[in-house]
Design goal:
The protein is of the alpha+beta class. The chain is built from 15 helices and 19 strands. The strands form 5 sheets. The protein has a 5-stranded antiparallel beta sheet, with helices on one face. Helix 7 runs parallel beside helix 9 and helix 10 packs antiparallel against helix 12. The relative contact order is 0.07.
Length: 474
């Protein structure tokens, strides 16, 4: 369980209070009966006979419940042993006393069901998977998908489970451990996890092929909850970072390092769960695809008409727009550049090559009818967080261009699955503050050493809503 999930787990204090009251009541009743019978001539014998009768009744009830409760599932398919080939995906369900995948079986569970993603390590021996499936069936847990990751010692089985709401994660993990599973990891899943692995990988490969900026996002969706860092080979100041990795990459338990086709290293970290060789091979295949296709950016355009009638074209930008971006810098005032870069104005041009790289995020450019760039909007991947930044040329400010770019960047972030975006600015930058407020999203404000950080939470934004700009691209 993740710390956030543990914190959200409800505490059943009402049930604890009722059980405590029942315990005190039982003690009081037992004490009254003992005092009443103990003073009789045959009192001690009656108490002993009552204890023996209660013990016999409890033993008979336990024997009866075990004999007439859940029978083992029939000897079919994968429940008979480890018959699924390594790396394959098995679909179906182990439910109750048999194999079922129908909606009727799901509806029989009182209180509804929840989806779990679970990974556990079992012995690579016949019957080991069968024992695990039988234990899950005994708790009315459906197995929706199954992937196997063979290792040198044992096999990692990854499940997508549908379990009763009344079955807590701790009890499910304990049941898996009793069936022979070890190093078990579990977290809540949603309907998007129902897509089988080959289909998901092909979809991510397609997205990567269309847009170089998709590689970090594709890796994150492929590997689950992880942190991805792109370390360039050269710093903004022109010094070599020494960041390098062999062509075949490096896998070290919870860290994998892959050679970035654009130079440097892509580091993927997942502290809570070691990567398997299968996951490493998939990630390496995506990076190799990106390297073979070379630089690429979707060239779709969207024409925006400003209130005064001027037509502005919004499109994706990359390093090929470096000269146009530098020319826009030359036309901007020192105050505008200072508000944007929070540092010496002379260093502004040094950031452009980094900002325009698709590896570190996405950039939108606003151009006039003559082709002159008058505004840039950046969506930057910052580990688990996402930053938005705007720069609008002085003569084109207060015309709605910044708000338009920001809205499109937020839509791109929501489509990429980002939970929030943040902007770093000065309190005196009223244009950026107004643009963030115009998003109509929940905002958090934080002042750090005179710098204002505004965070917009994207929970209210549909994750897959396409803007007209994106529809034109596709």
């Amino acid at each position: 369980m993740t710390p956030a999930q543990h914190a959200r787990r409800p505490h059943h204090w009402r049930r604890d209070l009722i059980e405590l009251a029942a315990l005190f009541t039982a003690v009081a009743v037992a004490d009254a009966i003992a005092n009443l019978i103990g003073h009789q001539p045959d009192g001690p014998y009656l108490l002993i006979a009552s204890a023996v009768a209660l013990t016999a009744t409890a033993a008979f009830h336990t024997w009866w419940a075990r004999r007439h409760s859940h029978a083992p599932p029939p000897d079919t398919g994968d429940a008979a042993g480890r018959s699924t080939p390594p790396g394959a995906v098995a679909t179906g369900a182990v439910h109750g006393q048999g194999v079922s995948g129908t909606a009727e079986d799901t509806d029989r569970e009182p209180g509804g069901t929840v989806l779990w993603r679970m990974r556990t390590t079992v012995r690579d021996a016949p019957g080991s998977l069968a024992a695990l499936c039988m234990e899950l069936a005994r708790h009315h847990v459906d197995i929706l998908t199954l992937q196997t990751h063979p290792l040198a010692e044992g096999t990692v089985d990854e499940f997508l489970l549908r379990a009763p709401v009344a079955l807590p994660a701790a009890r499910l993990t304990r049941a898996v451990s009793e069936a022979g599973g070890s190093s078990t990891w579990i977290e809540r899943a949603d309907a998007h996890d129902l897509v089988d692995a080959p289909t998901r990988v092909l979809g991510l490969a397609t997205r990567t092929a269309l847009d170089a900026a998709e590689l970090p996002l594709a890796l994150r969706q492929l590997l689950g909850r992880c942190t991805i860092h792109s370390l360039p080979a050269v710093t903004i100041g022109g010094r070599a970072t020494g960041a390098t990795a062999p062509v075949e990459g490096v896998l070290e338990e919870t860290v994998m390092r892959l050679r970035d086709p654009s130079g440097g290293v892509i580091t993927v970290e997942r502290p809570y769960l070691p990567f398997t060789p299968t996951e490493f091979a998939r990630a390496r295949a995506l990076v190799e695809l990106d390297a073979r296709l070379g630089p690429r950016v979707p060239r779709g355009k969207h024409v925006l008409t400003l209130p005064e009638g001027n037509a502005i074209t919004v499109r994706r930008a990359d390093r090929s727009d470096l000269e146009a971006a530098r020319a826009m810098h030359d036309r901007c005032s020192e105050q505008t550049l200072r508000l944007r870069y929070h540092g010496p104005v002379g260093d502004a041009d040094r950031y452009l090559d980094h900002l325009l790289s698709p590896r570190f995020g996405r950039t939108l450019a606003a151009q006039t009818a003559s082709g002159r760039t008058v505004a840039l909007g950046h969506l930057l991947w910052d580990g688990d967080e996402t930053e938005v930044a705007l720069l609008v040329e002085d003569d084109w400010q207060r015309r709605g261009i910044g708000s338009e770019l920001l809205a499109r960047l937020v839509a791109l972030a929501a489509e990429a699955g980002c939970e929030s975006v943040y902007a770093v600015t000065q309190a005196s930058n009223t244009g950026m503050v107004a643009a963030m407020r115009a998003l109509s999203l929940p905002l958090d404000y934080q002042i750090e050493e005179g710098t204002l950080v505004i965070t917009a939470r994207l929970g209210a934004t549909p994750a897959h809503t396409l803007t007209p700009y994106e529809q034109a691209e596709r």
